[in-house]
Amino acid sequence: MAGLLSFSLIWSLTACSPGRPASGAGAPAGARTIENKGSDTLVNLALAWAETYMAGHPEVRISVTGGGSGTGIAAMINGTVDIANASRGMKAEEIDAAEANGISPVEFVVARDAIAVVVHPSNPVDGLTLQQISDIYVRKITNWSQVGGEDRPIVLLSRESNSGTYVYFLENVIRMGDKESELLFSPDTLLMPSSEGISAEVRQNPNAIGYDGLGYVTPDQKMLVVARDEGGPYVLPSVETVNDGSYPISRPLYMYTAGEPTGDVRAYMDWLLSDGQPLVSELGFVPLE
Amino acid sequence: MAKNDVSTAPQPRWIEFAIEALIRVLGFSSIGFVVLIFLFLLREGIPVFFEVLPGNLVGTRWYPTFDLFGMLPLLLGSILVTVAAIAIALPLGLATAVLVREVAPNWAREILKPMIEVLAGIPSVVLGFFGMTLVAPLIRETLGAPTGLTAFTGALILAYMSLPTIISVAEDALDAVPKSYRDAGLAMGATQWQTIWRVVVPAGRSGIVTAVMLGMGRAIGETMAVMMVTGNAARMPLSLDSLFRPVRTMTATVAAEMGEVAQGSVHYHALFGIGIILFVLTFAINLVAASTIFQKRRRGGLR
To answer: Closest chain B residue to A66 measured between Cα atoms?
Structure first.
């Protein structure tokens, strides 16, 4: 039942950090485990945080698992994790479900992420407005020549619908933040099971357009500059443009704890919100200011 | 001495009884597991048929995040990919089986047979990766399709995966044709080709149907490779060029979405509902395959 992605990520982190206390009888009586699960966008960052933290705190063990934001939130509702990672906020009904189980999730913004819109390097189109991206993804625009490119059909790429990035992109780009909007991804959209699937297709298909977290964009894809509206400035996603608010597609990344954190979880959350922040930019995300 | 014999004799009989019982329990348990799995599928999947309006279920839009559970594009996607795969694999598989059984000299057969078995052992994710990075770009460039991630790409990979099954079952079917048939054909002045095509292959027909059915069962249930190369766009494959456009199959949908759903949600039940449809489909296919096997046995008895 575990997510396809999560099976490759279900490794107790302790396995790759030398000098940790052996599990079971060999561990000091105080060795405690923090269970951390959720967003695939956040999983690399969460792993890096956990490894670094455990190196300095051998008495704590943190096991990190991916699977998607919904997976982490579902685990939080079921009470099986200490910290859930999510690239979207918890929905009201999810919070209700958790509270029905006696768990009140506490939200922390731990980093920010820009969502880059990517195309094949040979594509002459350099920039798009949010409205154009929305029209492309609902198939109102179907050919690159309609946005100043070559006469080629547009192939739409997206992450799977279980991804927090999918939901964010739908709500804030395709529907452009309009809560009443009922726009959906066109049924022609190719749903790729992984970031690698998107980058592989973008790399080799000059017709393709895709989107992904800034940290997952490889140098062999071309990032588009994006403008809020036609007159507005076209901005390339980067740490600076996310922090100054000029890049229009950026979002907070969350961790949820089960109730107000105490003890080890408290110490860990405090650490990653302060001393852990330098790791954020190393992994291609945007640290909190 | 005689006393000894008497005292040891009952013991093996008791052990024998225990072992027999154990084997019986194990044998029946595999049936039991199948039944349990089916019951579990039903329990988890049936609710969707009450929770979601029938019009929604047979609709054309699959957006589970927005409570649109139209399973039609997924069902048609699976059928399209599977049928295309068999259309590619049947001529190839049958020709290979004829080659291995009827034409090839002994030494070539010794090499071919193990090679075909090696084919069956290639993990599907490897084939999927191969399809994604090599076959898909090739298809996009040669066919001029917007993307290489199409139903046809999936069909090619699936054809490749079902070939070993088709070849080995078809070969067994040809092998079961009595030698006297071949001798009679040749004695009547037919060439080797005429004998193969007009006598041996028709005589092995039911076995070849079984081969196709088993290959089909393999193809429709395959997940990983299909998910990697078909593009997973839940569109209705109704236009003529659909074979060369992306599709989303039922298996890929379950695999991609199962990790995410909250247990007991409508989406969760919908995925199990897809599981039920898949189970019924493969069951029907296997049933057809099995019935042709029985038919063959009955006819074999008459011969």
So the answer is: B259
Q: Does A41 touch chain B (CB under 8 A)?
A: no
Q: CA nearest B264 in A: which residue? A: A74
The CA-based dihedral angle spanning residues B284, B286, B290, B293, taken in that order and rounded to the nearest 10 degrees: 120
Tell me the per-residue pLDDT of A244-268, one tens digit each, with 9 for 90 and over: 888 989 888 999 999 899 889 999 9
pTM: 0.79
Amino acid at site A170: L
Q: How far apart are CA A100 and CA A69, in angstroms?
A: 20
Please list every residue in chain B whose beta carbon sits closer than 8 Å to the beta carbon of residue A190.
147, 149, 231-233, 246
User: CA nearest A164 in B: which residue?
Assistant: B260
What stretches of B121-223 show up as alpha helix (H) in DSSP?
Answer: 124-130, 136-143, 151-175, 179-187, 192-195, 201-203, 205-221
The length of chain A in residues reads 289
Judge whether A184 and A138 are in contact, CB under 8 Å. Answer: yes
pLDDT digits (tens, 9 = 90+) for B242-280: 889 999 999 999 988 887 677 778 889 999 999 999 999
CA B90, B91, B92, B98 dihedral sign is: positive
Instruction: Check if A6 contacts B (Cβ < 8 Å).
Output: yes
Query: Please, which residues have CB within 8 angstroms of residue B56's CB and are 6 or more apart in sequence?
Result: B67, B68, B69, B70
In degrees, to the nearest 5, what angle opens at C-alpha A2 toward C-alphas B148 and B258?
55
- Judge whether B63 is closer than 8 Å to chain A, CB to CB: yes
Residue with tokens 């799977």: A160
| Chain A: closest CA distance from residue B155 (Å) | 17
Which residues of chain A neighbour B245 with C-beta distances below 8 Å? 188
Q: Please state, as a whole number, how many other Cβ atoms lie within 10 Å of the Cβ of residue B164.
A: 22
